[in-house]
């Protein structure tokens, strides 16, 4: 891979991926529309270091402006991370925005890649939220999809539109279903980011539900690694679960955080917004076999890194 296009390069996972590609000597075209789902200053911070790199070109625009000829010139691999994320805000009127950013924009990207003399390899970011609440021991990619949020519905539709382009045209698209990614630069609406900040300020931690919901939390550099492996080894149409080191209940994560901060979390339990999955647990065998994917960062280690970043920001 000599040249890559990263959509959503100022976002949480996109900025880590861009950094890694630049470190590996890849030329990167980055696009980010700074859609206002959270503080633009945080996204600008994500870009601070990569923005100075001589092999990085940045286009501050949404995909819907469609300057594909410029963006895709000589690009070997497209990493498509641009999206409107977050399960809890996808109800009501905002659903139209989710449809636009997650489905329509993806279809435009597929169409543009198809027009290239040699279409690039495309790695698309999807989500464990396509499954909804998981049943049984672990869930592999063939499990039925029962999203419980409008966001999950848009991610499922995004996968379907990608699969249609693979079947009809052989477009080399693969998809990654991330399981609740965390680590430095995590989005401010996500649980670990909020919990660390609440505890550092001596505030109550707000848990939605009873804290017994579980996740297969995945450290951000493992999600980045999965992207690079998929670009090299995936077969068109492949879909991979990208999970972390283990499934754990939210309440148990909070107690690890308490240990790291040397305090006992004070918790307020609230009815959360609808759309929350009660359980996610990834079977990553397929990603292991096809890609050689294996999560490297334990939850304890990853939480330490995330805390260190939040601490350094609150000083700065
Ligand atoms: C996350 C991302 O936000 C989605 O964009 C992504 O697609 C999804 O992971 C996925 O992997 O499929 P979520 O699992 O809800 O969604 O991640 P968090 O926001 O970190 O929430 C984890 C759990 O903590 C949820 O049960 C949530 O209800 C709970 N939570 C969150 C709280 O109890 N309190 C809070 O203040 C925030």
Automatic annotation (TrEMBL):
InterPro entries: Epimerase_deHydtase, NAD(P)-bd_dom_sf. It comes from the Bacteria. Residues 4-243 form the NAD-dependent epimerase/dehydratase domain. Pfam families: Epimerase. PANTHER family: DTDP-D-GLUCOSE 4,6-DEHYDRATASE-RELATED. Belongs to the NAD(P)-dependent epimerase/dehydratase family. This is NAD-dependent epimerase/dehydratase family protein.
């Amino acid at each position: 891979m000599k040249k890559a296009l990263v959509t959503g390069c100022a976002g949480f996972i996109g900025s880590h991926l861009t950094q890694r590609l630049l470190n590996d000597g890849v030329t990167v075209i980055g696009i980010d529309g700074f859609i206002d789902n959270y503080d633009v200053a945080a996204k600008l911070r994500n870009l601070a270091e990569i923005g100075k790199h001589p092999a990085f070109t940045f286009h501050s625009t949404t995909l819907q402006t469609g300057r594909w000829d410029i963006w895709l010139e000589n690009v070997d691999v497209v990493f498509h991370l641009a999206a409107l994320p977050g399960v809890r805000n996808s109800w009501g009127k905002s659903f139209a925005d989710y449809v636009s950013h997650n489905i329509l924009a993806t279809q435009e990207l597929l169409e543009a890649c198809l027009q290239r003399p040699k279409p690039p390899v495309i790695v698309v970011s999807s989500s464990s939220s396509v499954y909804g609440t998981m049943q049984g021991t672990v869930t592999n990619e063939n499990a039925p999809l029962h999203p419980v949020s409008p966001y999950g519905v848009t991610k499922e539709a995004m996968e379907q539109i990608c699969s249609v382009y693979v079947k009809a045209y052989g477009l080399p698209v693969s998809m990654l279903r991330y399981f609740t990614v965390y680590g430095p630069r995590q989005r401010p609406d996500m649980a670990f980011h909020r919990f660390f900040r609440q505890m550092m300020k001596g505030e109550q931690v707000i848990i939605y539900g009873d804290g017994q919901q579980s996740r297969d939390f995945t450290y951000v550099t493992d999600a980045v690694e999965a992207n690079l492996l998929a670009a090299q080894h995936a077969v068109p149409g492949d879909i991979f679960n990208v999970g972390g080191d283990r499934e754990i209940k939210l309440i148990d994560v909070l107690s690890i955080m308490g240990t790291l901060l040397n305090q006992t979390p004070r918790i307020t339990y609230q009815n959360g917004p609808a759309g929350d999955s009660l359980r996610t647990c990834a079977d990553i065998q397929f990603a292991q076999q096809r890609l050689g994917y294996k999560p490297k960062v334990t939850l304890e280690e990853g939480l330490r890194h995330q805390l260190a970043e939040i601490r350094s920001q609150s000083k700065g």
